[in-house]
């Protein structure tokens, strides 16, 4: 019982329980140290999400542009495709290669964010090829 009295303090709490209840400052320090890591992870998730949204937007517009290019009989279809792509997508470079067998349209977009520069994801380049004899569209 002498040991029991030594372990118990005047409120009836053990030394272990008193230690656990008295570490509020340690929790705050740990939170402050982990906060930048949590912020970096969330920023990376948001940046990769925006990259995916940009890529899907380019792919959808580019597929429609190649489909229009293959099915249209318009003489100025190259200029119209460039105009529509520039209106729908911001800050892009467009390359169109029209041969007798196929048409290749390539779109490159520059991205300016911290993580895209760190991980070398600052350019999104997508190309679609349309075969003229079958009107088939192939990515790449």
Task: Describe what you observe in this structure.
This protein has 140 residues and is an alpha+beta fold. The protein has 5 helices and 4 strands. The protein has helices at residues 2-7, 15-21, 24-71, 77-88, 114-118, and strands at 92-98, 102-110, 123-131, 136-139. Strands 1-2-3-4 form a 4-stranded antiparallel beta sheet, with helices on one face. Helix 3 (24-71) packs antiparallel against helix 4. It starts with a helix and ends with a strand.
Q: How many angstroms does the end-to-end distance come to?
A: 81 Å
Overall number of strands: 4
Shape: rod-shaped
Portion in beta strands: 15-25%
Report the order of strands and helices.
HHHHEEHEE
Global Rg? 30 Å
In helices, the fraction of residues equals 55-70%
Structural class: alpha+beta
The number of helical runs is 5
Arrangement of strands in the largest sheet: 1-2-3-4
Question: Overall mean pLDDT score?
Answer: 83
The low-confidence parts are none
Largest sheet: 4 strands, antiparallel
């Amino acid at each position: 019982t002498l040991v029991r009295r030594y372990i118990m303090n005047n409120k009836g709490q053990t030394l272990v329980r008193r230690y656990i209840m008295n570490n509020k400052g340690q929790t705050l320090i740990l939170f402050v140290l982990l906060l930048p890591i949590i912020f970096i992870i969330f920023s990376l998730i948001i940046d990769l999400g925006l990259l995916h949204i940009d890529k899907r937007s380019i792919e959808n517009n580019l597929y429609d542009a190649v489909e229009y290019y293959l099915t249209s009989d318009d003489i100025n279809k190259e200029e119209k495709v460039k105009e529509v792509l520039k209106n729908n997508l911001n800050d892009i470079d467009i390359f169109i290669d029209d041969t007798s067998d196929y048409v290749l349209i390539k779109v490159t977009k520059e991205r300016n964010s911290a993580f895209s520069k760190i991980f070398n994801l600052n350019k999104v380049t997508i190309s679609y090829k349309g075969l003229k004899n079958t009107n088939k569209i192939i990515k790449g």
